[in-house]
Amino acid sequence: MLQQLGAGLKRASPNMCPVRGDELMTFNPKLDLKFERVLDVPPAAVWDAWTKPELLMQWFCPKPWKVTEAVIDLRPGGKFYTLMQGPEGQQMPNTGCYLEVVPQKRLVWTSALQTDFRPNLADPMGFPFTAAINMEPQGAGTKYAAIVHHANEADQAKHAAMGFEQGWGAALDQMIAMIKAG
Fold it and tell me: Could you name the CATH architecture of 28-181?
């Protein structure tokens, strides 16, 4: 049975979690949320904004919220942690685990796991998700796509109702402004 399971899985590389083909990027409109945009900044700058804690803290959540702490252990199994703080001091810690790291092309992480692929039982959002960020050169800019996978339709609807598109869009606008000011 293990041989059958192994036959259907892609061999893991240093940059990839063992998943079948591109299934992690398959978009299901009933379960997933998608955000796409062409950015007028280069992929290298977008990559840095996603992978350097001191940069991520400047743009990652829509204002007036802010990120007061960020930990990025950029490897499959590595920790992706942010501590978000609201305008009245409320705090929202977010712990995740990187699944795939392809420099300047793709980041995949999940809130369902913590460091070294251990289950994460303390998800403050109330639902686990897996996010994939893709960056492709397009002219002098970047074709940017984010897909967030949810376990069920209720979780997808909850995330959409929280303002997924507006929130991720506002944060992305903040990232672009930061890059251009840089």
Answer: 2-Layer Sandwich (3.30)
